């Protein structure tokens, strides 16, 4: 079955109308959880695309969230040549951008740069894959029928990586998530029908594990993307280079397996839980730094996410990555300092800026050096709830709340604005999650001030 084309004039008018809509925050008249504000142009774009191509709307949202946290990244491509919040790709193996242009009759420029067009293009491609894969009209409302089209959308040639890509989207549907626009997608029971991918080994699960680093899964990069060597005998390993993937976890692992990529890294970490996959043996030279001398003398570690979006920089990823770096520095005698644990941006001749200004070097180096404790405390507030803020200070936006009497984990502590509460006056703020802070004046931790062995943010 062919995906029907949409009259170009009507489509452009609809997209223009959606993009021109202005979102107005109205706390008093806010929509209930799970329901976007009707005036949100991005919500309208998902509504339009899902209805037009008969693709489950929450599946589209989960795919976009997995790829980009629903961020257009101002039209710049990912490392794998993917554009927009839906990562429409244009590289020698994956051509979803070109397919979207053919199916929607929209220009590649619009598909790359306009959110509504980008979402519509992804929906069109998914629908075409569903039709080609035999998903019937009666089955299209069942989100579990779309595993194969989602896996194909990711473009991985390795069955394990293809399954990982699609399973990531279904894991989001299972747990639920909140988009950057504030729309809550509640979790639901899912049982994806994986078809030919059901027997594929699960990366990080029952699949092949790394022989270099026990916690890592093994998904080898294409031999075109690294150089076989016998390090450290032939080259001293004296640095660790920190990168951001500028793309998703599964997508980046898949990209390293693409012979056209010409890039790779030894390890890649996932944002949500700190899972890690190795793509190049430590003895071999990954093509990660853009400088041959640095490539020959370093281990490259990628981290899922984008430099301009701090939502990807989770404590789980920091801690898991730091555990690997601690192991590497011990194994190769690398000093645990900023002269030897560096960012890609610090490599001579680098054209990349990763890991960027949102990477917390102070926190990371403390974890690498063994200050790895997680504290806990009990919230005590005179009201029913305590505001949670996006940074260590009262001027930062409120991003949630915790109930009086709740127990919270403290991953690190920062200095911020001074607050007076049940436990006195203090400028210490406790980070209880990614970009989530509460004043220590309202948290009983069993310590007066800083908690021993808990890092400073």
UniProtKB/TrEMBL annotation:
The keyword Protein transport does not apply. InterPro entries: Amidase/PGRP_sf (IPR036505), Amidase_domain (IPR002502), Lysozyme-like_dom_sf (IPR023346), NAMLAA_amidase_2 (IPR051206), SH3-like_bac-type (IPR003646). It comes from the Bacteria. It holds the Pfam family SH3_3. GO terms for biological process: cell wall organization; peptidoglycan catabolic process; peptidoglycan turnover. Residues 1-30 form the signal peptide. Its EC number is 3.5.1.28. One of its GO terms (molecular function) is N-acetylmuramoyl-L-alanine amidase activity. Keywords: Cell wall biogenesis/degradation, Hydrolase, Signal. CDD domains: PGRP. This is N-acetylmuramoyl-L-alanine amidase.
């Amino acid at each position: 079955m062919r995906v029907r084309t949409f009259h170009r004039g009507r489509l452009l008018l609809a997209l223009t109308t959606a993009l021109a809509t202005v979102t107005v925050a109205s706390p008093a008249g806010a929509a209930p959880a799970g329901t976007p504000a009707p005036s949100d142009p991005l919500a309208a774009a998902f509504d339009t695309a899902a209805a037009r191509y008969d693709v489950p709307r929450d599946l589209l949202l989960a795919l976009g969230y997995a790829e980009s946290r629903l961020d257009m990244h101002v039209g710049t491509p990912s490392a794998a040549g993917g554009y927009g919040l839906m990562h429409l790709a244009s590289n020698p193996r994956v051509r979803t951008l070109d397919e979207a242009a053919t199916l929607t009759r929209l220009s590649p420029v619009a598909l790359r740069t306009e959110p509504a067009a980008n979402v519509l293009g992804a929906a069109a491609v998914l629908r075409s894959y569903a039709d080609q894969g035999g998903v019937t009209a009666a089955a299209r409302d069942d989100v579990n029928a779309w595993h194969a089209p989602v896996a194909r959308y990711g473009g991985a040639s390795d069955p394990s990586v293809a399954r990982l890509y699609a399973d990531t989207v279904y894991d989001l549907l299972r747990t639920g998530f909140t988009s950057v626009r504030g729309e809550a997608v509640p979790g639901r029971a899912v049982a994806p029908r994986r078809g030919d991918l059901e027997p594929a080994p699960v990366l990080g699960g029952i699949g092949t594990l790394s022989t270099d680093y026990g916690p890592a899964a093994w998904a080898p990069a294409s031999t075109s993307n690294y150089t076989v060597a016998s390090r450290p005998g032939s080259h001293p390993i004296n640095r660790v280079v920190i990168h951001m993937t500028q793309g998703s976890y599964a997508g980046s692992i898949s990209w390293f397996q693409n012979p056209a990529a010409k890039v790779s890294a030894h390890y890649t970490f996932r944002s949500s839980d700190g899972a890690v996959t190795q793509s190049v043996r430590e003895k071999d030279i990954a093509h990660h730094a853009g400088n041959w001398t640095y490539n020959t003398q370093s281990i490259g570690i990628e981290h899922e996410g984008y430099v301009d979006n701090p939502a990807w920089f989770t404590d789980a990823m920091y801690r898991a990555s730091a555990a690997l770096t601690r192991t590497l520095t011990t194994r190769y005698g690398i000093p645990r300092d900023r002269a030897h644990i560096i960012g890609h941006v610090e490599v001579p001749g680098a054209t990349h800026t990763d890991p960027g200004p949102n990477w917390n070097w102070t926190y990371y180096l403390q974890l690498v050096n063994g200050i790895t404790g997680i504290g806990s405390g009990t919230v005590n507030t005179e009201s029913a709830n305590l505001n949670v803020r996006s940074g260590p200070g009262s001027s930062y936006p409120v991003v949630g709340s915790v109930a009086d009497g709740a127990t919270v984990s403290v991953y690190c502590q920062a200095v911020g604005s001074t607050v007076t509460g049940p436990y006195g006056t203090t400028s210490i703020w406790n980070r209880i999650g990614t970009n989530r802070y509460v004043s220590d004046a309202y948290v009983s931790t069993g310590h007066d001030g800083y908690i021993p062995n808990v890092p400073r943010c």
